[in-house]
Amino acid sequence: MSSSAGPNANPIILAARKYAWRYVGNVAFWIQRFTGLALVAYLIVHVHTIHDLRDPETFDAALAMFGKPLFKLAEIGLLATVILHALNGIRLTMIDLGVGLTRQRQAFWYFAIGLGAVLFLAGAIPMFIYGILRHS
Amino acid sequence: MTGRAINWYLQRITGAALLVLLVMHFWVEHFSAEARTPTGLTFEIIQRRFFNNHWFVAVDLSFLFIALYHGLNGVRNILLDYTWGVRMKKPITAMLLLLGVFVAYWGVTAFIGNPHLQQISTTITANR
Fold first, then answer.
1. Is B110 within 8 Å of A54 (Cβ atoms)?
2. Do the Cβ atoms of B64 and A54 come within 8 Å?
């Protein structure tokens, strides 16, 4: 990224630019950690719900609760978390294999964030319409 | 190959496997015709599905084991990035292993040896 900003440029814009390109690997690193930890926490809670299959009434009560708009909204958040972790994980594996090493910054923005946003909207819009707007 | 290298490879391999399994999981639970009902997924749908096709149990349980390994190994990798984590390596590994076995047990016993699912499975066989 060329930095054409002079010495009097806004420090916030300068910092944003640095983190967006020069330090993007570090941003991606922390995103991978936080999303990973969140997904482990979700996995444990999720398996706890599945264990309720031993008691059908409790299970259906739990599923009815998770059908409520607030939980649907959380589920949309889960989708975003999964997509970020998965796409950035693919990017990490590519770096490990030495594929596109010089383009890893672009891979974060265009692949993990760009393609991620497309996939997210493709899932989130129907989830929002059917899970929240048309919730009965 | 050293243990650490195997650990590193396994995190990538399980990650790739999870990608495939997760897409299958999402499809089955959210987009398949039987899940797209006004009430969404219910015990009855799961009961019917699982006992007409044992592949669901097999795929879901492999998904569970692989996700648990990938997730808890990821937590271990994070903790071992810290000096105190390296010092506590053995108790950390033991605790995460214990947690993994515990959650895996929850998941397995939801399907295997579940009296409510068994009842239906014997009725289906009896009706054939």
1. yes
2. no
